[in-house]
Amino acid sequence: MSFVDLARNLARQEEMKRAVVLLSGGIDSTTTLAIAIAEGYETYALSFDYGQRHCIETEAARRVAKSLGVKEHRIAKIDLRVFGGSALTDDVDVPKQRAVKEIASGIPVTYVPARNTIFLAYALAWAEVIPANDIFIGVNAIDYSGYPDCRPEFIQAFENMANVGTKAGVESRRFQIHTPLIKLSKTDIIHKAVELGVDVSLTHSCYDPTPEGLACGECDSCLLRLKGFREAGITDPIRYAKK
């Protein structure tokens, strides 16, 4: 490579847009990361060890980040078990074998109080430092478990807050929260993942996996995932204890 070509490559790299992408290791956040990369962003993936029931999802996040070639991947350690109030952070049973209509009605005990607010706040802090104007989150308001912090009005409210409550925002550097999956069904998300060449076998969605790391196949997240793959006409490559 000539010096001119090298200089051009460096210039292109400097011009790349940067984005912080929240990455849980699940199929939604993984597809969101792939979309950000496809849109030309230099991606900084952010995951959380927040005291959840297991560490399998952070292991999945590491695999995904490596496979998709993110610029940097960080795992923030926080402790939401201090407050509890969720089947994911407290001694509360994870609901199993619920009907799809039941999953879609009400707010389940797997809701973690203020989780997306906290995660987005961390992402915003990192975006200020990088610096980046864009944050991606894989929330979905179609096939989801009724979480209030997955709705468009919450995302818009957070974006407004980000632009009035930060040094960058006050200095006229506008933040944008991207939610590319918010109006997609789980089936659509799976099709998108396959279209983008995502290795979905690296992902993990289960709320209550076995000690061996198998997805339970019975929690809300597993049931929605299995339904999505079934309707997409694609075999889910991950292993389940029950299916």
Overview of the structural elements:
The protein is α/β, with parallel strands linked by helices and 243 residues long. The protein has a domain at 3-92 and 112-186: Rossmann fold (3-Layer(aba) Sandwich), CATH 3.40.50.620. It is 40% helix and 11% strand. It has nine helices and five strands, in the order H-E-H-E-H-E-H-H-E-H-H-E-H-H. The chain has helices at 3-15, 27-38, 56-68, 100-103, 115-129, 152-164, 167-170, 186-195, 220-232; strands spanning 17-22, 41-49, 72-77, 134-136, 176-178. It has a five-stranded parallel β-sheet, with helices on both faces. Helix 2 links the parallel strand 1 (17-22) and strand 2. Helix 2 (27-38) runs parallel beside helix 3 (56-68), helix 2 packs across helix 8 (186-195) and helix 8 (186-195) packs across helix 9 (220-232). The longest helix has 15 residues, at 115-129. Mean pLDDT is 91; it is low at 1-8.
Tags for this entry?
243 residues; alpha/beta; Rossmann fold; 5-stranded parallel beta sheet
CATH class of the domain at 3-92 and 112-186: Alpha Beta
**Mean pLDDT score, rounded?**
91
Q: For the terminal residues, how far apart are their CA atoms?
A: 52 Å
Question: CATH homologous superfamily name of the domain at 3-92 and 112-186?
Answer: HUPs
| Unreliable residue stretches | 1-8
Q: How are the strands ordered across the major sheet?
A: 3-2-1-4-5
CATH topology of the domain at 3-92 and 112-186: Rossmann fold
Task: Summarize it.
This protein has a domain at 3-92 and 112-186: Rossmann fold. It is built from 9 helices and 5 strands.
